[in-house]
């Protein structure tokens, strides 16, 4: 079946992911290869000291993204896109979207990036005996209760961004188990929220003067492969105001970007994991057994199939590095160079390969926002160096690349050294790894583990949710792992880098200085 025939006959799957800086859509065919893509760039806003996206921006972005995809379909294949065989929505995880009984948003969307929930996170973690990170939805809800916010008495349901969009497209308030695990702890055996912990939160809310039934506020939990509703006429119109998109497409459970990253890298089996690097950077490691104790640095979430995962989530990823590359691009333009951004990135990243293995006495902190792993509520990007450091380009860029991985390394040390979790390989994806063999090599050194990259994740989470949509619509009686191994990744080619001993020693030395100088970062927050 050729691409045009697949599109016309509806043998396709559409995946849409709302990431931190881009909304992306991927249309795939029966072989799961991308047929067309669309995108829309957007940015969060820092309003009233909280990071947010407006719902108007959500729908403007979704419409622009879908229109871009439809135009790409017509340009590539000469056919109008008016139906899809299956559909899936994913988005950045966590955060707080609270609605009243009439479906009205009660307060602006509070995203994962906010770190104002410290008291709630600390109390809930202690009461539940389970690490509740700052960005989890229940932490946002309980913090609003502790703050005495007026709206909490009118909350009828809360959800994530993916859950909200799915609800608007289908009329169903459901969530994939991976995304749900970033709202509230999951009982893996039961395949749903932990009932005993729900009762504890109900008690805490009542003690604070806000009686509620948390189970009634949270979306229903579904696992990969389950039906999650159909695209309604109203939903189709919201996505495509031209009226060309027909309703009726089945949807898979909405998922978070962490879950789609696991699918897009075939990292859903024990002893595998993936690192996603963008605005944030996080590692997902599928566990063979329960952890020995609660760790503040580790989130316990699940795969889209419901298997336990340890997540090391760092609020700050490659944004500060990107800012420095942008500065070099401006300098190149001022000199009259016509080098594009991709060329500037490749040139600088390649230079990092010749830099000093330990950063050469330079240090950088990529903290644009707060970072719970290092107990910072706000961020101040910093670059500093020892007076006798060799101030040259390769080491400078390597230092900033190391900085992008440093906080992740802290969490991975807890997982690998304290808990003894073993990894056969990590898969790396995201913009940080587009220049071949650079950030991949440094990540292998940082976690002393083979790191693989490949074209399989080139389209990222949007492709991952398209794969989940195809899985839900396949009707096959098999596991997600079998579906990925036998049908999606059977012919996938990967490039794997083994950790180099010199790089490992160099990163270790860099980390010793980086951790020792964290008080400088804290002082910058306190005094600026």
TrEMBL record:
Transmembrane segments: none annotated. Coiled coil: none annotated. Residues 274-472 form the Carbohydrate kinase FGGY C-terminal domain. One of its GO terms (molecular function) is kinase activity. The keyword Transferase applies. Keywords: Carbohydrate metabolism, Kinase, Transferase, Xylose metabolism. Pfam families: FGGY_C, FGGY_N. Belongs to the FGGY kinase family. This is FGGY-family carbohydrate kinase. It comes from Microlunatus ginsengisoli. The lineage of its organism: Bacteria, Bacillati, Actinomycetota, Actinomycetes, Propionibacteriales.
């Amino acid at each position: 079946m050729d691409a045009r025939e697949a599109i016309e006959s509806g043998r396709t799957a559409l995946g849409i992911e709302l990431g931190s800086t881009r909304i992306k859509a991927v249309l795939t065919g029966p072989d799961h290869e991308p047929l067309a893509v669309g995108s829309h760039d957007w940015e969060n806003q820092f309003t009233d000291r909280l990071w947010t996206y407006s719902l108007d921006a959500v729908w403007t972005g979704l419409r622009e993204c879908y229109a871009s995809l439809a135009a790409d379909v017509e340009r590539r294949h000469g056919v109008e896109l008016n139906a899809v065989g299956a559909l899936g929505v994913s988005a950045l995880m966590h955060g707080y979207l609270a609605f009243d009984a009439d479906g009205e948003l009660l307060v602006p969307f509070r995203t994962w990036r906010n770190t104002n929930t410290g008291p709630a996170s600390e109390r809930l973690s202690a009461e539940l005996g389970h690490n509740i990170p700052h960005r989890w939805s229940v932490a946002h809800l309980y913090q609003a209760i502790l703050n005495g916010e007026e709206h909490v008495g009118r909350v009828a349901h809360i959800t994530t961004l993916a859950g909200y969009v799915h609800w608007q497209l289908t009329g169903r308030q459901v969530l994939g188990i991976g995304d749900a695990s970033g709202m509230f702890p999951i009982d893996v055996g039961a395949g749903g929220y932990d009932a005993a912990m729900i009762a504890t939160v109900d008690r805490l809310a009542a003690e604070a003067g806000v009686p509620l039934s948390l189970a009634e506020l949270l979306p229903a939990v579904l696992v990969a492969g389950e039906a999650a509703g159909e695209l309604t006429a109203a939903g189709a119109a919201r996505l495509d105001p031209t009226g060309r998109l027909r309703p009726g497409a089945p949807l898979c459970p909405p998922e978070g970007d962490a879950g789609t990253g696991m699918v897009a890298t075939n990292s859903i089996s024990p002893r595998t994991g993936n690192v996603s690097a963008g605005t944030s950077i996080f590692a997902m490691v599928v566990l063979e057994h329960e952890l020995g104790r609660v760790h503040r640095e580790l989130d316990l979430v699940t795969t889209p199939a419901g298997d336990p995962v340890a997540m090391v989530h760092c609020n700050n990823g490659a944004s500060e590095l990107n800012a420095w590359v942008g500065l070099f691009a401006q300098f190149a333009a001022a000199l009259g160079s016509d080098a594009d951004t991709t060329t500037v990135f490749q040139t600088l990243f390649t230079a990092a390969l010749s830099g000093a293995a330990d950063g050469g006495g330079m240090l950088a902190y990529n903290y644009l926002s707060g970072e719970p792993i290092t107990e910072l509520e706000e961020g101040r990007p910093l670059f500093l160096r020892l007076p006798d450091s060799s101030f040259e380009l390769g080491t400078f860029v390597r230092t900033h690349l190391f900085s992008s991985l440093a906080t992740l390394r802290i969490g991975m040390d807890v997982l690998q050294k304290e808990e003894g979790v073993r990894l056969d390989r990590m898969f790396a994806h995201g913009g940080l790894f587009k220049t071949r063999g650079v950030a991949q090599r440094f990540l292998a050194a940082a976690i002393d583990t083979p790191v693989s990259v490949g074209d399989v994740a080139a389209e990222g989470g949007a492709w991952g949710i398209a794969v989940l949509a195809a899985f839900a619509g396949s009707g096959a009686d098999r596991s997600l792992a079998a579906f990925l191994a036998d049908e999606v990744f059977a012919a996938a080619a990967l490039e794997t880098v083994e950790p180099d001993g010199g790089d490992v020693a160099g990163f270790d030395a860099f980390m010793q200085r980086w951790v020792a100088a964290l008080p400088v970062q804290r002082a910058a927050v306190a005094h600026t």
